[in-house]
Each structure stands twice: as C-alpha cells, then as structure tokens.
Amino acid sequence: MADPMVQTIHRDPALFYWILFPISIVMVLTGVLRHYATILLQPTPKKLTLPALREQRALLHGINLRTNYSTISLPSFLSRKNTLVAGYKNGEFLKDPESRGKPAGNPMTDPAAMEGMMGMMKGNMAMMIPQTLIMGWINAFFAGFVIMKLPFPLTIRFKSMLQSGIATRDLDVRWVSSLSWYFLNLFGLQPVFIFILGNDNAASQMAQQMSQMNPGAAGAGGIFQPGQDPDKLFKSEAENLEVVEHEYILEGVEGRILGTAGML
Amino acid sequence: MSLSTPLRQSNSEALSLAQQTTQYLQKHASTGTSIPIPFISYPESTEIWMMYEKLLLACLRTGDDKAAHLCLEKLIDRFGATNERVMGLRGLYQEAVAKDDAALGRILKEYNEVLAEDPVNTPVAKRRIALLQSLSRTTEAINALTELLESSPTDIEAWTELSDLYLSQSLFPQAVFCLEEVLLVAPSAWNIHARLGEILYISATSSSNETADSKTFAEAMRRFCRSVELCDDYLRGYYGLKLTTDRLLSALPNDSTITGQMVSTDNGELPMPSTTTVRKLNERATFKLAEITRDTTGKGLNYAEVVAAKALLDKSTQVRQR
C-alpha cells in the first residue's frame, strides 16, 4: 500500500475503564480461582497395597541390575540375574498370580484407571467451564468493540489474531478488539500468575496441557500404565537381563588410578 | 541454614541448628494455619517443612525435647497425625523421650498395631526396626529388614542398615551382598565403594585362610581404587588403599620378574595385581594421604579420620626407618 495514512478512531475513554480493565481483572481473578479449585479437586494419591508395591519394586530392581551391573563382580551378577529371571518367568513378583495370562481387562472397568480419568476430567472441567463462561460473557456484552491501539506496527497476518469479532477489511492491524484482548490475556498471563501464586501454580492452561501430556507420570500409577500387563513387562525384562554381557568396572582400575596420577 | 542431610551434620552443626529453633518457630508462626493469601501471608513452600523436620532432628539430637515437641506439633497441624512421615517422626520423638525399656516396649507395640493395619507404612516400619536395634534385639531387626526389603528391593537406606547389622554379627558375605545391592541403585556412590572395601578388608583380616585372604585384599584394594577414582581426595578411600596395599605387599611374592602376568580365571575373577602396581598404588596413597592431612582447615574433614590417617602415616615411616 502506497499511502501511509494514519487511521484515527476516536474512542470513548470509558471503553478503556469499562472493557479493557474488567476483562484483564476478570482473567487474573479466574486464574487465581482456578489455581485453588484445582488444588481442591486434586484427588489424594491412592496408597499402593503391599503386593502392588512389591511388583513395581521388583521390576525396578531388575532394571537397576541391568543398568548398573558393572559395579558388581560376575559371580554376584550371575546369582542375582538367575534369581530375578527365574522369578520373573514364574510370576513370583506378580500382584495377583492367579490372573496371570488372562488378557488385560477393559481399562474402563479398571477402577484405578477410571480414577485417573476422573482426575483428568476434573482438571479439564476446571479449565473449560470458566473459559466458556467468560467467553460467553464477553460475547454478550463487549462484542465488536475496538478497545485499544498497539504502539507498534504489525503485518497483516496478525489481523485475525488481534481483530477477531470485527469484520472489517481495511482497519489497521494495530487496533485490538475486545475478544482478541481476551485471547491475549488467556495465553499471556502466565508470568503474572507466577508472580502472584508462585512457580508451581495451576492457573494457566499451559501448565494444564503440560500435565496432560504425560498422565500418570506423577500419579500413584508409578511405572505401570493402566491397562499394561505386568507379566509381559516382567517377561521382557527377563529377556533384557539374559542378553546382558557382563563387564566389571573394577577391572583395570589400578591402571586407571595410576594413569591419572601419571605414575604408569 | 544449610539444607544438607542431618546424618552428615557434625555435632556442633546440629547444636547451632537446634539453637535457632525458637527463633525460626517465631518467624514462621503463622505459616500453614491460615488460608494463604498472595502477597500478604508468608508463602508456603516445601523447604519450610523440610526445615521443620531438620530442626526436629537437630533438637532431639541435642536433647532439646521441648523445642522438638513444638516442631512436631507444627508438622502434625499441617499434615495430620496420620501422615506416614509425620507418624515416623512422632515415633522418633516418643522414643527419644521414653524413660526406660518398658516405655520403649509400649512404643514397639504401638508400631506393631500401626503396621498390622497398614503394612506399606515404610517410615513406621523403619522406626520399628531402629527401635528393635536400640532394644538390642538384632536378630529380630534383621528379620524385619529382610521382610521390608523383600517387598521393596530398591530401598538403599534399608540395604545399608542391613549391611551394618550383618557386619555387627560378623556375617561378611551377607554384608557385602547388601552393599552390592546399594551399588546397583547408586553406582557412583564412592563412600559405598569404600565401605565395601572396608568390609572386605575386615573379613580378610579376621579369617585365617591365606590364599583366599590375599584375593580378598586385592578385591578390597580395587574397591578403594574405584572410590578414589570417583572422588578425588577421598580420605577414607586413600586410607583403605594404603592399608590394603601394605597388606598385599607383605603377602605378594617380592619379586618384580613376574609382573604383568595376566592369569585370567574362568569364573570371572580378576587376576591378582602385580607387585609393582601394588607398590605404586601404595606410594600414591601415601602421597595423597600426606597431602590431604597436611592442611585440613576449611575442608570439612572429619577430625577423627584425619588423626587416624596421620597415625597410619607415622607408623609406616617408623617401619621404613627401622
């Protein structure tokens, strides 16, 4: 475009006090509320029963042996490996040895898995409901207002981001509509929440999405995902252990010590 | 206030920590009781509660039972009396203020009841084992520990404790086994490597089989080597290295022609080290020990260990002069 004509829109200053401020304040307050609501909704971590704990730790034991075998001598390694592999294959460490070999049940009927899903549902609800409400509120009261002008120029690509709700083609991109201001707040308030609530807050939806990426990682489920058959995990771990080729870290350690001391 | 683990504190550190308790309690008097309001109330963090636990331990250690009780009450207020960790700490406090063995017996009964209800309560299970130890019922303690480790074989705290118990009963192979388990979880723990060497050394000195002895000494020497490889200037490691190499030098054939012969055995055992290597290692250990003990200020070294190392060095110079 050739002409750098500056668009001017005369805005009522009341727009600033009655739209820009309220939206921002409401967004911050909902964030804070959401933080406390999430804390309240959090289920208390379920306690593991002794057999379940044993099952998990037994698998971990095997993994540890597989990764750190080099610290112990060959005879010690072999005796441990044989015991563990035999135990894995016989299903000694299983939580309920009777149900071994049966196909894994539907995760929908597993109460533990259900609980995890309920937790996720609650988290989602705490995020969705306020968002829907505020979105509706803004649409009902403030739709179609141009409320501020950015102090810097932007390219045309930002038009859909900054001017949602206003169907004008020629308006300069620097003008921001109320609905867009809401979206900007929604995504950009994270530093404010960190300032108010501390680092591990649940106010922002970014954090929520992060935690949904790996559900169960922090939960009581531990290393077993719901619906996974521990027997199969044990079997594969037994195979992993069997192919380990042992080497001993103490072999030649004298030479290494003298080498670093420059005495060889 | 440092957040280092209470086990590694020296007595003086524990005392100074315990003396800060009253001050700390006043400063954080309001935390955790009211609803947290941003900006106004003191922000609650994990560190505060860790600090309370630490203060509790330091107070119990220095005999300040009153302040310890205040800390404990704070923790109970915040986490509830049914929290596992709080239950363990409460048991610790009760054990500390118990007057006689009968009172300890009552606490033991309490622990048994708690564990009968909830066998997964690890802190209380561990307290029970410690209590059995302090009642000098070592066999029961060992049994309880093996039971605990049966269900959680990755608990290194329990493995080290069991190793110490076995050592106190002179069951060396068992003690070694336990420490190997610890190494499987924490492969770079130089103190455990050195500890393993120490146990091997003790077992070799207390047995009478000569050929097996020198093999065990060689293994102990390699463990000490590994520990100083992982941690430079590790006093205990070099101390052990010097002891074992001294022993090996007197046991090995004193003739340098057979150096470097590598007889690798079929069952995966490492060959005996050559005399020259052992001698060099001995020189190295002596040198490092002298270097470490020369200037000990500000290194956080254990005083007793330094004195022992100096005594060892003096002894070896005397032998050489003779």
TrEMBL record, chain A:
UniProt subcellular location: Membrane
Statement: the UniProt record of this protein carries the keyword Transport: no
One Pfam family, short name: EMC3_TMCO1
SMART domains: DUF106
Source species, domain of life: Eukaryota
Matches recorded under InterPro entries: EMC3 (IPR008568), EMC3/TMCO1 (IPR002809)
Membrane-spanning ranges: 15-37, 127-148, 179-198
Chief location: membrane
Any one biological process term the GO annotation gives: protein folding in endoplasmic reticulum
GO cellular component terms given for this protein: EMC complex
Keywords recorded for this protein, A-Z: Membrane, Transmembrane, Transmembrane helix
Membrane-protein topology: Multi-pass membrane protein
Signal peptide range in chain numbering: none
Family indicated by similarity: Belongs to the EMC3 family.
PANTHER family cross-referenced by the UniProt entry: ER MEMBRANE PROTEIN COMPLEX SUBUNIT 3 (PTHR13116:SF5)
Protein purpose: The EMC seems to be required for efficient folding of proteins in the endoplasmic reticulum (ER).
Name of the protein: ER membrane protein complex subunit 3
Automatic annotation (TrEMBL), chain B:
Function: Part of the endoplasmic reticulum membrane protein complex (EMC) that enables the energy-independent insertion into endoplasmic reticulum membranes of newly synthesized membrane proteins.
GO CC terms of this entry: EMC complex
Keyword Oxidoreductase: no
Keyword Transport carried by entry: no
Membrane topology: Peripheral membrane protein
Protein's UniProt name: ER membrane protein complex subunit 2
Subunit structure: Component of the ER membrane protein complex (EMC).
Main location per the UniProt record: endoplasmic reticulum
Annotated ranges, domain EMC2 TPR-like: 109-206
Highest taxon, organism lineage: Eukaryota
Family annotation (PANTHER family): TETRATRICOPEPTIDE REPEAT PROTEIN
Family: Belongs to the EMC2 family.
Pfam families: TPR_EMC2 (PF22890)
Coiled-coil residue windows: none
Compartment(s): Endoplasmic reticulum membrane
UniProt source species: Cladonia borealis
Keywords assigned: Endoplasmic reticulum, Membrane, Repeat, TPR repeat
InterPro entries per the UniProt record, alphabetical: EMC2-like (IPR039856), TPR-like_helical_dom_sf (IPR011990), TPR_EMC2 (IPR055217)
